[in-house]
Write a structure and sequence with these properties.
By secondary structure, the chain is mostly helical. Helices cover 83% and strands 0% of the residues. The protein binds aspartic acid. Aspartic acid (ASP) binds at residues 280-282, 316, 319, 357, 359-364, 393, 396-397, 400.
């Protein structure tokens, strides 16, 4: 019997964890870093390599299929509304949880001091990174979406939104010009689309090995375990919130708005979720998310190739929930009281910060600095949560990707319904 891909990925992950754990015990960490980790890096590079071409080609062929502009704006409006709804829900849940559990109160004076000292340097790097963002005007995010050079944007994985903007303009142009002239261009991109999907199939053959290497490297590179205990409650609070989103909120949305059964949804999305978990990057996972949604859930390609690339960059429920919990946790741990107004402000800043986060590992933590700054919580508090950020990143990225897929299914089914109405 041929084992399904997500089982192979899961087995790769578990074996990698076990292998890394054993190598750590035998103090062979350098061996893993030198000889195993590179395969993980190669795998992630392969996925990143295909991300920009995939977005360009799939978005153009998706847009070309829409055939008229009113369809596009209806699709866009619906997508953005759903993305905002899920993000704000996530932050709110995070805030509620952090206020109920009060994870920050579990930290004792001693471990607080040791954490602050241990990670002060690392935290400083992140603070500097975010400072650059913070020193700009209120309209900077808008300015940032518009590239001054398309090729520069396309050659940088961090400027996906810029690429998307150009491609949307290109797609609109393609819809508006004479059909006879548009056809060869559309056909070209459709063919190209198939080629890229084929390449992704090749890359995914290497997934089990790639995640094995990633997990093994993670195990040997995790800093000192002794501090982990103090952070357990905080970590569990974040994870509990993320699990709530994953297994209560999204299934609820699916039941409410679509005919897709949650069980089928999760089975179809398993490869993407596992990959998100092991790469901590929604952008790197995007090719597989697309494949799962289009092939396994049989969602219209024209909807998926518009909604998913956008979601990978702007819709990060897991990240926003995490930012809310982390901000409150740090404030509690440092003994800073937060009034209701500040907490409501966190809903806004965490939503915006999650939209602004790049879909790469640790991006959510960089943007957390902005949430902290707005709420008047010392940014150095970041040092408190540094040690367990990576595992939390894995969970929140899985939620980010699940949310994108869930919204895609909802948008697709509302488009379906409209079609039916027109027919009758
Ligand atoms: N790693 C996350 C993602 O790619 C972003 C984050 O750091 O929260 O979705």
């Amino acid at each position: 019997m041929k084992l399904a891909l997500h089982w192979k990925i899961l087995i790769g992950m578990l074996l990698g964890l076990l292998f890394g754990f054993l190598m750590d015990i035998f103090e062979q960490n350098q061996l893993v870093v030198d000889w195993v980790k590179p395969f993980g890096t190669i795998f992630i590079n392969l996925l990143k390599m295909i991300a920009v071409p995939l977005i360009i080609v799939s978005l153009i062929s998706g847009l070309a299929d829409l055939k008229d502009i009113s369809k596009l704006s209806a699709l866009g409006g619906k997508t953005i509304r759903m993305y905002l709804l899920t993000t704000v829900t996530a932050v709110t849940i995070g805030l509620l949880l952090a206020n109920i559990v009060k994870p920050g109160n579990y930290i004792n004076e001693e471990s607080r001091k040791s954490l602050l000292v241990n990670f002060a340097g690392d935290a400083a790097v992140k603070i500097n990174l975010a400072q650059e963002t913070k020193n700009t005007g209120p309209l900077q995010p808008l300015v940032d979406i518009v590239p001054d050079n398309f090729f520069a944007a396309a050659s940088n994985n961090a400027s996906m939104l810029q690429v998307i903007l150009f491609v949307i303009l290109f797609g609109i142009g393609l819809i508006l010009i004479d059909e006879k002239k548009a056809k060869p261009v559309v056909d070209f991109f459709k063919g190209l689309n198939d080629v890229i999907l084929k390449i992704i199939e090749f890359i995914m053959l290497a997934a089990p090995i790639g995640v094995f290497a990633l997990m093994a490297a993670l195990m040997v590179e995790i800093p000192d375990f002794s501090t982990l205990q103090a952070l357990l409650v905080y970590g569990l609070t974040v994870i509990f919130g993320l699990l709530f989103m994953m297994y209560v909120f999204y299934p609820g949305l699916l039941l409410l708005f679509t005919k897709v059964k949650p069980k089928r949804f999760f089975k179809a999305m398993a490869p993407a979720q596992l990959l998100a978990f092991s790469t901590s990057s929604s952008a790197a996972t995007l090719p597989v998310t697309m494949e799962c949604v289009i092939d396994n859930l049989e969602i219209d390609e024209e909807v998926a190739s518009f909604v998913l690339p956008l979601g990978a960059t702007v819709n990060m429920d897991g990240t926003s929930l995490y930012q809310a919990v982390a901000a409150i946790f740090i404030a509690q741990a440092l003994g800073i009281p937060l009034d209701l107004q500040t907490q409501l402000m966190i809903i806004l800043t965490a939503s915006l910060a999650s939209i602004g986060s790049a879909a790469v590992p640790s991006a959510g933590m960089v943007m957390l600095v902005i949430v902290l700054g707005q709420a008047g919580i010392p940014e150095a508090g970041l040092a408190l949560i540094f040690a367990i950020d990576r595992p939390l990143d894995m969970f929140r990225t899985a939620v980010n990707v699940t949310s994108d897929a869930c919204v895609t299914v909802i948008v697709a089914s509302s488009v379906e319904k409209k079609k039916h109405k027109h027919k009758h």
